[in-house]
Amino acid sequence: MEAQRRPPGAHRTPLRDAGRPWSGAALAAALAVAELAVFSSSPPARSWWGPAYLALGFLPLVWRRRAPRAVFAAVCVHLAGAVLLLPEHLPTLALVAALYTVASRCPRRTSTGALLVAVLLYVPASTTAEVRGSSPDDPVRASVAVVLLLLALLCTTAAVGFRTQSGRRRLLALEEQQERAAQEAVAAERHRMARELHDVVSHSVSIMVLQAAGARRILPVDAARAEQALAEIENLGKQSMTELRRLLGVLRDGAFVQPAGEEELGGRAGMALLPELLDGFRGAGLGVRCDVTGRPVPLDGSVDLSAYRIVQEALTNVRKHVGTGVDVTVREVWSSDALLLEVVDDGNGTGPEPGLSTGYGLVGLRERVRAAGGTFEAGPLPDGGYRVRATLPVQVDPASGGARSRAGAP
Q: What is the pTM of this model?
């Protein structure tokens, strides 16, 4: 459930970098020291205001991550002043740092505009100052060389910024993808928990309620049958408690996972228990008949569990929505590659029991069958009644001989 602690995009906050002002100040100070070192080493000697003006241009870099556009504009204004006041030495490092910040943090159109402004403002002034200061024999060739060098410097700075921004965006996209995947996993986990709780509780509780109601009605006239119904209630209650303990144990131990097979019910899930299940519904007032066609074979654990749950939920729905006295046929049709299950009722019962339906059973069955690689359909029949039909894949293990014992199958 930890994925819900932070929604996607929550890590992208404008205050994330603003919370570290010391890093911007340290960078501005380091660049200013480097620029002043170059400035002081070049003749002629200058008064105090020259270094002070150069250092002033690095002050906006303290806020370069918080407001990259404004910082770039301030540096450009400072550069324009330096063209007039200190034409022989322009503040290169401040412009490079501001341009890189814009390129790495602003939209591509804004970054391209900033690069164009830097080129138009810096290259002509710096080229003129360099050529005048060095007095080359061929000023044209020297000017071209300086222009190319400065263009390479500014374009490389912008390219590095673009690449940094692309890498940051890829990282953010990957983080959001991971968070979405985690949230989807949490949603799927909750969905599986809801389905599992429905399977564990709904069937047993519904039957216990119906058995208790029947026992209360027949107690004055048939104490033996009432005692039998109460014994069924006791057994179902014990089974439900066992299954709930298992489920709660899984939840305490860690993330809930899709059950792999018969382990889901501590070894009690599967078609081998179908006779016991049918007997329980017969005791609850359903006229259940089971027809088996073909030779039953061992099933994969998850498929075996799904087959059992299909019959269990279908019969539970019949008891809820049709009532007692209804005739139900459970059909198993085995083939070499599939198991066809049908649960069909004739619709002639005492009527639905109020307040027992969760509205989740058929949805859960459809998902179970889909997860097992099968097909599922359910709906009313033209002549009355209702049919639930599912086809599940069968993988025969040659070593097993293809036989599966179901003692006591009707």
A: 0.45
